[in-house]
């Protein structure tokens, strides 16, 4: 009971960008203000970077992550299923990373929770071809993250090849392959490019003329209209 309350307290603080008063925290947790103060002191003693004081409010500084120790059976199953999906359908670096994540989680999660989740049979279907499994899209993710333009050599379904300058904003992962979403300067619009048809690509020094978040909003808006 107390452990669950401490985790809930951390969740509330993590989701708030501004200090939360002790009385508001106590009200959300359904506990007394004295118990709330003791809980905060306990978390601080355990290493949680919580700043604040009575009358001022409390805030959890960025960079602190909840320890993956108290997953419910359903949460553990969701995590295992998600990591197995990424392992099967992600490109090579993501697939390897998902296996490492799952291995780390299995080392720290209580054995009872892990056994309960493992007892539920589930599957993710057949993964992509060996050729797709060896794909490495790290440079595309880097371009998206840094908001840099890409020059790509792209082969259309009719086998014609063209050179494009695109502003990459997202990558879609599907059972049949992966799709790079971006604004194409030549087409002056959003286009979807299958990554297995990209014959060559180069990260340019030029930054995209719009922020990626703004482009994502525009892309989603056009898809819904």
From TrEMBL:
Helix-turn-helix type domain segment(s): 5-58
Source superkingdom: Bacteria
All residue ranges annotated as the WYL domain in the record: 137-201
Gene3D superfamilies: Winged helix-like DNA-binding domain superfamily/Winged helix DNA-binding domain (1.10.10.10)
UniProt feature coiled coil, ranges: none
Cross-referenced PANTHER family: PROTEIN PAFB, PTHR34580
Protein name from the UniProt record: HTH domain-containing protein
